[in-house]
Amino acid sequence: MTTWDPEPTVGNLIDHQTTAFIASVDADGFPNLKAMLAPRRRVGLREFWFTTNTSSMRVAQYRANPQAAIYFVDQRFFRGVMLRGRMEVLEDAAAKEMVWRDGDTQYYSLGVTDPDYCVLHFTAQDGRYYASFSSKNFQVP
């Protein structure tokens, strides 16, 4: 029996999407889902970095409960992947500078030091991939 390595297939799917969906848990225990721009950085299927506003509802939810999920969908071939894990809110200069891009001042007018600019760092533990009318669960190494 062969073991399926999700990295090539799932990584390729993720790298070709312009939108990601992130999920948090609110104070009442309900999931909250939001579309985001694709992650700024990815290391394997384990770590993802997104940018957002420090003042956002999502940041407050992750600070209260770091349980999270992210989802990517390839609409053309109707396939997708959900990753479950934890989301950490980073406000240190190194993290902010690592993912900062030219043009980000349209979102954060004070630049990389804008107090309303932060980084969401997602660390995955496992995932579920769907394609061709079939789903596969996998652990993230």
Features:
single chain; 141 residues; alpha+beta; 8-stranded antiparallel β-sheet; globular
Terminal residue distance: 19 Å
Residue share in helices?
Answer: 10-25%
For the secondary structure, the number of strands is: 8
Radius of gyration: 16 Å
Element order: H for helix, E for strand: HEEEEHEEHEE
SS summary, helix count: 3
The assigned structural class equals alpha+beta
Largest sheet: 8 strands, antiparallel
Mean of pLDDT: 96
Strand-residue fraction? over 45%
Q: What is the overall silhouette?
A: globular
The unreliable regions are: none
Description of the structure:
By secondary structure, the chain is α+β, with helices and mostly antiparallel strands. Helices cover 18% and strands 46% of the residues. It has 3 helices and 8 strands, in the order αββββαββαββ. Strands 1, 2, 3, 4, 5, 6, 7 and 8 form an 8-stranded antiparallel β-sheet that branches. Strand 5 and strand 6 form a beta hairpin. The longest helix is centred in the N-terminal third of the chain and has 10 residues. The protein is globular. The relative contact order is 0.22.
Layout of secondary structure:
Elements: H1 6-15, E1 19-25, E2 31-37, E3 41-43, E4 47-53, H2 57-64, E5 67-74, E6 79-90, H3 93-99, E7 117-131, E8 134-139
Antiparallel strand pairs: 1-2, 1-5, 3-4, 4-7, 5-6, 6-7, 7-8
Short description:
This protein has 141 residues and is an alpha+beta fold.
